[in-house]
Specification:
The chain is an alpha+beta fold and about 110 residues long. It has one domain (about 30-105). It has 3 helices and 2 strands, in the order H-H-E-E-H. The chain has helices at about 10, 15-25, 70-105; strands spanning about 35-45, 50-60. Strands 1-2 form a two-stranded antiparallel ribbon. A hairpin with a 2-residue loop joins strand 1 and strand 2. It is elongated.
């Protein structure tokens, strides 16, 4: 019978949004549009346990005016294609490393 685990919030070490904004020097405000891409993969490591692997990237859309919707749309499409490719490769690489290490233990 699987063990009953705590909910995700109780297991999380991630600070609240207010804590992250007030304490993190990496939070920045931008006057230009920014696109955020992220990919998450869940790895079943056995015994009803999973590991979440996540990679994300934010890409500034420099020299793009919010008034020029056509140019903004084109910039978003190009940035999304690039951003999701990068983070997908990162999560895939990390997924493979974890899966390989688990199979080596078995």
């Amino acid at each position: 019978m699987p063990k009953i685990s705590q909910n995700a919030f109780e297991q999380s070490n991630v600070p609240s949004v207010a804590e992250a904004v007030s304490s993190s020097p990496s939070v920045a405000l931008s006057s230009t549009p920014v696109l955020i891409c992220g990919v998450n993969r869940k790895i079943n490591i056995g015994n009803f346990e999973n590991v979440d692997v996540y990679a994300g990237i934010s890409l500034p859309l420099n020299n793009v005016s919010l008034e020029d919707k056509e140019a903004l749309s084109k910039a978003i499409e190009e940035a999304a294609a690039y951003g999701f490719a990068v983070v997908s490769k990162e999560t895939g690489d990390r997924y493979s490393l974890i899966k390989d290490s688990q199979q080596a233990k078995a």
